[in-house]
Amino acid sequence: MGTLYQAARERIRKLLMEVYPEEHITGDYLEKIYQLIEENLQEVTCSLTKWDEADTVLISYANSIISDRQPPLQTLHAFLKQHLINEIRSVYILPFFPHSSDEGFSGIDHYQVDPKLGNWQDIEKIGQDFDLMADLVINHVSTHSQWFQNSLKGESPDKDYYIEMLKVLFFYINRGIRIIRLPQAPRIVKLFRELAELIHPDCVILTETHVSDGENLSYFGDKGNEAHMIHQLPLPPLILYTLHTGSSKHLSQWARKIPEPGNEATFFNFTASHDGIRVRPAEGLIPREEMDQMVEKMQDFGGHLSTKINADGSESPYEINITWFDALKGTHRGSDDLQTERFLCSQTIMMSLRGIPGFYIHSLTATENDQEGVEQTGKNRSINRKKWDWQELMEKLNDQGDPAHRVFSETKRLMGIRTSQPAFHPDSPQEIQDLGESFFALKRSHETGEAIRSLSNITNRQQEFDLTRLDNSGDLHDLISGRDFGADEKTTLEPYQTVWLKSNQRLAQR
Question: Which segments of 434-475 are extended strands (E)?
């Protein structure tokens, strides 16, 4: 238990007044808040920065890998320790508490771990080897869902319920969870951030949103003083479209306009998630007709389409339900034999962009569409929520002829390269370069002056490239292939090949 000094008390009071009318912030209510905070204050050692180039996140359900020998959380921990201890820093465990439906997102008791998955000790053991990330699913913690709905409407949420939310938040922090994902709840994110950091300065608040790109960016607040991190929602459909069509036009146009989040906030980059590939964030970025054509092809690749009902009663695409690996089994022309190359290109582009990269476990394992799961549950999202049997998965990952082996091993290798390069620090600026629609190119620059140029051939054909177009004065080294290039060379990029080029001091000194 700690002491909350007067300056902090006054800061909290002002933040509460941004959420509630002043007459609602009574002395008794403030004392309840102050007491709750003091009960959870403790002396902690914090990092000098919240993130760096070594930050990576694995996204997984507690039971994405199962074994007869132990509870799922222990199986997940064993997999992480054996295979990803050097590549992954944070583990985002999707809802693990008792629930009524929706695979955990309709939680019944956020203070408990579903006994079918394990217990808090299992989670805390994972936290000894990795940073932990979890969801605070506000709209399902109890029957008071009106609290959440009011916040979405811009109305003041129930004050007493807010205290209950803080109790859950502080409970998570004290259990070792450092990244906490909040749903879209305007007017409270800033307050949650301030109080979470008060309990543990290393805490990071990530917002979960289902909105357009512009509205999503608003969750950074004024100069990055609300959410620490927001999802790059348009990234999955834009990368998919880019590799589907062989044109980087829309991806480059969007990426060129990404605003600077400041040093107090960053982006969470990802390609696949447990839900699906949401279409709405790409509205206005990809023409509707072109999006419809891509959606139709995803259905040809075994995917399903979830729709939403519009105000006029019509339906429009909301989410493509398909595994990321199968979404990349071909282009707008149909399936081909470049699925693995195309997949790896998508991950390399995602890792190159400013922010922290996230990897869904079924992308790392090159999981194919789980049609059996869809038939069993009747839910489209089950297509990308397969539960791997430990032995079956190990056999695939160890089989050098299986695409899962190459995807897993090569993605791990790319992670290792990336995490050793300061230019990939989440705060390092990025510059999108126009080198033609057949390429997606960007430059990341660190404050030390070190720079990396990421160049991806996003087509299914070889592409010749003149390195003088990079406006680089010296010789270059490709971190991925290990090749050296003279500044005035021409090179050929294979279909979906990416190079990470940096100045080659060794060649320059010859």
Answer: 439-445, 451-457, 463-466
Q: In this structure, are strands 204-208 and 131-135 parallel, antiparallel, or unpaired?
A: unpaired
Nearest to 49 by CA among 260, 177, 228: 228
Over residues 119-164, the pLDDT tens digits come to 999 999 999 999 999 988 654 444 344 444 454 444 455 667 778 8
Distance (Å, whole) CA 319 – CA 304: 9
Compute the distance between CA of residue 39 and CA of residue 282 in angstroms, rounded to an integer.
44
381 in helix, strand or coil?
helix
CA-based Rg of the chain, rounded to a whole angstrom? 23
| Category of 275 on φ-ψ map: left (φ > 0), alpha (ψ -120 to 50) or beta | alpha
Phi, psi of 500 (to 5 degrees): -110, 100
Give burial (CB, 10 Å; 0-12/13-18/19+) of 436: middle
Which domains can be identified in the chain, with CATH numbers? 430-508 (2.60.40.1180)
- pLDDT computed for residue 142 by the predictor: 42
Is 362 within 8 Å of 273 (Cβ atoms)? no
What are 480-484's contacts with CB under 8 Å, separation 24+?
A: 480/348, 480/414, 480/417
Q: How far apart are CA 299 and CA 327, in angstroms?
A: 9
pTM of the full structure = 0.92
**Strand pairing class (451-457; 439-445):** antiparallel
| 199 within 8 A of 4, measured Cβ to Cβ | no
Is there a contact between 184 and 208 (Cβ–Cβ < 8 Å)? yes
Q: Give the whole-angstrom CA distance, residue 138 versus residue 147.
A: 9
Distance CA 178, CA 176 (A): 6
pLDDT in tens, 419-458: 999 999 999 999 999 999 999 999 999 988 899 999 999 9
